[in-house]
Amino acid sequence: MDLLDAESDAxxxxxxxxxxxxxxxxxxxxxxxxxxxxSDWLPREGESACASPFLLNMEEKLASxxxxxxxxxxxCLRMPAKTQARxxxxxxxxxxxxxxxxxxxxxxxxxxxDRLFAPERREQRLLQQQAEAAAARLxxxxxxxxxxxxxxxxxxxxFGVDLNVVFANRRAAAFLGLPQDALIGRPVGDLFPxxxxxxxxxxxxxxxxxxxxxxxxxxxxGALRWLGWSVHFLGAEGGGEFQAVARDATASRLLRIxxxxxxxxxxxxxxxNERLRIAHDLHDTLVRSIVAMIAQTRLIAKTTxxxxxxxxxxxxxxxxxxxxxxxxxxIERIRVSRREEDDLRVIVAQFAAxxxxxxxxxxxxxxxxxxxxxxxxxxxxxxxxxxxxxxxELHSGAQRVRISFMREERAARLIVWDDGVGFDPDAAxxxxxxxxxxxxxxxxxxxxxxxxxxxxxxxxxxxxxxxxD
Length: 469
Known about the structure:
Keywords: Kinase, Transferase, Two-component regulatory system. It contains 13 helices and 15 strands. It is α+β, with helices and mostly antiparallel strands.
């Protein structure tokens, strides 16, 4: 067997073992050829590549590659195959050949990380299944003794594709303080308006399956409550209507936040140890696998004389090196000291991440660098900021939140503002100690905390603490 045959066999083996997949698209984004089973995620030859879920509505982005000579990279996508393996997809345009090159390679590192965290995910799924089973049993028991529509504590609405209500049960009408007949024919978004920037009443989501979301709403007395909605399409047999069922999730939302607050300090030491363990595991698995992949890519490149294949393998090696760099940076970040937990920027970022499935515009401004504050001042500002953001998340129903931290000549100033429902700071709140806790922390540190708020007028929290010369 001569060298050309060996090269051809090596490339064929890589394709056969699913180590690489190649595909070519013409200028109209039609699939010209697919090579290797890793490219089976693309439509058949002759069909538009943008018919694939991965490339849906990306015609303009792909067309821009012809002018920019750049690359589109999709890392760690789960393939629509029985194995559910993950893969990296790279798309480039060749002006010389007037074709797009699509390279698909296994994301071995992602699979290793999946296996690393598989026990935790299985435990979470088991807990979720147990919770769902318990909820199902409760619903069955309720259905045996109550009329699910009129006597249940759940809110029940039905509306058409125009979003106009055609039925509302007594519970929903009582919550709004209106007669049932007064709800018929009104848009569901008017009865339960979104208090955020986006409208959650999107029937295109419910038409594809259950649409589940939590939203803030004001009851008949103007109090802010959180409702957990589940919207289903009833199908043709249901008159082409949608049914929305909601429960009052205010208590459970409060419980989640309060439990998180109680666990926060207890978990700090455990989290530090867990980070170190994960860093070691990632180094021993993910990093070594990427290094092995780079070495294997080099070996294959040496055994082939095809320039296109070599170029693709060089690109693959470059991607592997970039992935190795990012993995090492991620490991280093995991090993960062616990002090990062009190970094105000990190707290704001975590708050924004928690609100990722909701609708709120968050603005932040900082005029100081990391580690510029004394440790005790840093802890004070972090504690007050966390409590203020918890109150925003739980009680405000705000559309906008603005956080600023400014270091002045001899003091530092933290401002947290929201445009939510506000409250009376002087009113007694039995069982709630968040505001009192912030005031006590500020007084104990020799700082000044002011809370300006009124019902319907938003809330402004200002903390000013002196700094040593």
